[in-house]
Amino acid sequence: MRSWGWLVALVGLLAGGVVVAPASAEAELTVAAALAAQDGRAAPVAGFVVGQPVSAGSVLRSGFTGDTAIAIADSASETGTARMLYVQVTSAYRAAFGLRTNPGLMGRRIVVAGQLTAYFSHGGLKEPTSMATSGGTTSDYYAAAAGKSGAALRAALHGIIGNHTKLSYSQVWTALQQTDQDPANAANVVLLYSGRSQSKTSNGGNADDWNREHVWPQSHGDFGTAAGPGTDLHHLRPEDVTVNSTRGNKDFDTGGSTVAECTGCRTDTDSFEPRDAVKGDVARMLMYMAIRYEGGDGYPDLELNDAVNNGSAPRTGRLSVLLRWHAADPPDAQERRRNEVVFATWQHNRNPFVDHPEWAASIWGT
């Protein structure tokens, strides 16, 4: 049957609008099925955008250089090119589906119809006749965790969030300027503990500068600033140099004396208490770290416990307090926005406890 995709594209271009043709009504293939059917047939394929192909074995997951190709996969966290379908993005679709122009497409589920044939000498889809985004991505991202609880849920979440783009410590400076941007002033970041809005460019090591706070202390597992836990944006936040020094590597608990330059914060010899507005944020960052880093991939096995004075052990507490903070301070719009930016632009993985706060009780109890 003749495709009228070219006519839809022409009408859209003449109207000056974005061209997004409706997806085919045929049954959608998975990426795996499309890779097995590279015989020139026309078919619609559904998958998650996972990068920009630049060669048969190489896909960019950030720093996109063009709008002419995307890679899709059956999992939003897929990193193996053998399980990706390379999709040609022709001129009619580049404004809406090119990754250089639309980096926020990373992780989005799309449906694309076209010819199943090699592209970049790799399993591909060429000459698309329709391209469309397809529904919310979060439930699909967590599909492997559906219906699970306790240890099974924990294992599923580790598998989902474990594959992500790892940054250098220097890249973190730039990333934090985006992830923690002040919604009321795009030239500033909001500091985690103090809540102060401060110029993005006033970062460094001097008093009243902001620097990179490891919410899970580097010394609790001795991972330093190497790529992985030392540069993971899901627990790195901008903070005033002096306040960061006061917090040091203390565990989290309630009580103590007030902290200079940090209204609502308290500290004693072995613990730090942040202001109320971010107590839940702190708890969820630590929960993420405990699930992401399980010791099986060359990184320490990070665990939450109900203690303070954890020192160099790969432990952080106090768990019972963190669970209370998590319940009392649920995710807000700014925390959800941050999760999206880390996912779409930088690491391409998510903090599951921002998306599903109820999972904390399933894994650690109430």
Automatic annotation (TrEMBL):
Metal-binding as UniProt keyword: no
Region (Disordered): 198-236
Pfam families: DUF6359 (PF19886), Endonuclease_1 (PF04231)
Keywords, comma-separated and alphabetical: Hydrolase, Nuclease
Superkingdom, natural source: Bacteria
Keyword Nuclease: yes
GO terms for MF: hydrolase activity; nuclease activity
Domain named Endonuclease YhcR N-terminal: residues: 29-132
Name assigned to this protein: Endonuclease YhcR N-terminal domain-containing protein
